[in-house]
Amino acid sequence: MRQQIFATDKRIFGWLLLAAFLLVSCAKPNLDAPIPTYETGINPNAWAQVPAGEFLFGQHESVETTEAFEMMVTDVTVSQYTAWLTEALASGAVRVGEFNGKPAIVGFYPGDKFHGVKHEERIDPGDWIFIPLDDPASRFNFDGKTFAPKPGYENHPMTNVTWFGAWAYCNTIGGRLPTEMEWEKAARGSDGRPFPWGEEITREHANFYASRDPFEDMSSFGSRTSPVGFYNGKTYDEYTTLNNASPYGIYDMAGNVWQWTGSIYEGMHYRFMRGGSKDTYEMDLRAWVRNNATPTYFSPGVGFRCVR
Amino acid sequence: MAFLQDRFKYLFGSTKGLILVAIAMISIETAIWGMLSGPMAEMGVREVVVRMLGMKLVQAEREGRIIILYHSIAMAVVAIETYMILGLLKVKPFYKTAVTALITVGYWLAMIFGMGFAYFGRNWAFHGLYITGLSLIFFAGVLLCIALWPWNKEYYVADREYAHLKSGLDLERAAFFATAVTTVLSALFGAVPGSYFGNGFETFLAENIIRLPHKTTMEYSVIGHLHIMLALICIMITLIIGRWLNFKGLMHKIAMPLMILGTIVLNLGVWGVVTPLEPIAHMIIYVGATPSMLAALLLLIWSWNKLIKDGTAHIQKPGLGDKFAALLRDPLKFGPTWQMLFMNFTTSGIGIFMAIKLDEIFRVWPAREERIELTGHWHVLSAIVATIILMYYGDMIGLKGKIRQWYGWAIIILSDIAFAAVTVFEMKRLFISEAEQQPLVNGLMYAIDFGLGSLLVLLAIVMVWRLVDLFKHKGRWSEEMGQELSQEVAK
What we know:
The complex is a heterodimer of chains A (308) and B (491).
Chain A (H helix, E strand, L loop, with lengths): L1 H25 L20 E4 L2 E5 L4 E5 L2 E4 L5 H14 L2 E6 L2 E8 L16 E7 L7 E3 L4 E3 L13 H10 L7 H9 L46 E2 L2 E2 L17 E3 L10 E4 L15 E4 L8 E2 L5
Parallel strand pairs in A: 12-15
Antiparallel strand pairs in A: 1-4, 2-3, 5-6, 6-7, 8-9, 10-11, 12-13, 13-14
Chain B lengths: L1 H12 L1 H19 L4 H5 L2 H9 L8 H27 L4 H27 L4 H25 L22 H28 L7 H4 L7 H28 L5 H22 L6 H34 L8 H9 L2 H26 L1 H5 L4 H30 L4 H27 L10 H33 L5 H5 L11
Helix pairs in contact in B: 1-2, 2-5, 2-18, 5-6, 5-10, 6-7, 7-8, 8-10, 8-11, 10-11, 10-16, 11-12, 12-13, 12-14, 14-16, 14-17, 16-17, 17-18
């Protein structure tokens, strides 16, 4: 009798364990959970000078050269992008349309040359998606006319923006997306360092997967973006950061969000991203690491910045 | 002194001892290097291990380190398979001794000095010894091919129940031979680009260049090499399991020609990626993979049928329940073929699905997602081979009764929980967005960590038990010293 009860208990315990596992795994996280707000003191409207000259490019460090250029000191913020979108919508430069049957902001892109290479897809002239309008992970509100950052996300990087959306923003403000080479030089300077600040990475240097920053909660919504320029050596409440500026004073070139680059390669419709993100391990934060996706891809872990 | 001599003789002079040493080496390496990634890294264990062991992890060398890590574990697995072949098949004593000595010294050099070079500073003497180790393993492979030469009349079949030609040529031996020869040739297929890229540290991981439309011949060669070597390790373990279970009869006669055909065509397809045949290489690979997988399916049907027949022999009219119980009564004999079947859900199925929906689904996602799928599915495949080896090993060391049941079922259930979770993790983007995935990811990680962690604990228990046994005067080791795998083939 006692054995029977014990066996039944064990079975119940097993089912409870399984039920708990399924509940934990299937629980929907609160994507609008309150986020701590911090003023970083870094100006997102500032541009940094990157001088012309040689630098070590790629993991195997081939010597390459760039012209002089300026790069935004931080990623484009939600405030900056939403302000631009509101103006662009009012001027008719963008419109509310659809992408894959879902509402989106779309705008014109002049298209790419098609080479017919295996796996290559056509990017024809026409309206392409800039941002989705119904994605719960987006960090802005839209009332039909005006875009505004969700409270607390004003100084966070603009995410859920496609390559087309990033391309259009940079072009409109008189700049462009950086080439992969420009991006890497801006990130690591000319001495071949793997990270913008030097040789090694710690959790206090950048926002990456499970980096224990004040914005993440790995038990529910996971990693979230941090304000641009957050990792500048300041202490926020009890959280002390290390300065992650590149040799040219550019912030967040490792972690937080992947950054779209402007290079377009023959036979490929993919666009390349650099820098790693809040959702990747630190190995992806090395300056030479590449990621790529179709230009219509958007994600809460992808943003951009411009050069001129 | 005699104490050490006897143990040394067992560990390096008997098949079972050699297999134990290789499993122990892999266990140690897995335990240490498993702490450098995934949840262990997240928990901060990696930093402690790196500091404690004095590892030197240069950021730019990560890919090179991983390549050496894969190779060092793979070499020990190849050594285990070689010991099994030499223990199961008839070969001349000279070849047995020579191949065993070469491959043992080879994988030890490759493992110790390879890992020393990769993780503890770039000591070029270590690199030289690592390459020496790989070369010795290659030479052992060449000798193994000679030893397996199936046209030697000594090795013609005496029992007509086994697949053979009219002349008596043993087709199972021919299948072992074909797999060994193509393995040696495919090793060259990796050695050439390995030397090219290794000379200057221009290493790369195949999954990172998969989307580039233009790849060099050397890059194609690396991609081909890694695919075919893993496939050949799988084919070889299937043949080994077939021999251990004494696969024979009609199905054996159909399976062995299929295995030979599949192995050769599969290799031709993979080698074709560096020739003008590249555009149709994948088609050739599919054509080759089909007969190989069919042969494995025949082994599965035959072995399950045998388990059922043997297990219900005492019952006059066995019902479905009796048959099912008979099939599952010995997890160590049921497990290897079950894992082969399970592989179709976690590896082949995923691979085929990805191939069919590549542009439509998978290449809409970012490259990092595709990398997860690629690395996930071959990690699972490698781990499945490891579980099959462990199950055969459990039988080899004579596990009986409840311990046999616990050991066998623990391997099957724990590994399959982990592999299933990995598969869901790979495919998660099909049904959940990046923003909402964390709870699911956490759940899957618990399942993976629980499955693999418990499996490693089980392995550690077995290893400690075997270590303690070595200190006994008349331990199990002393019995195993005189035993050979061929004597233990199922009746």
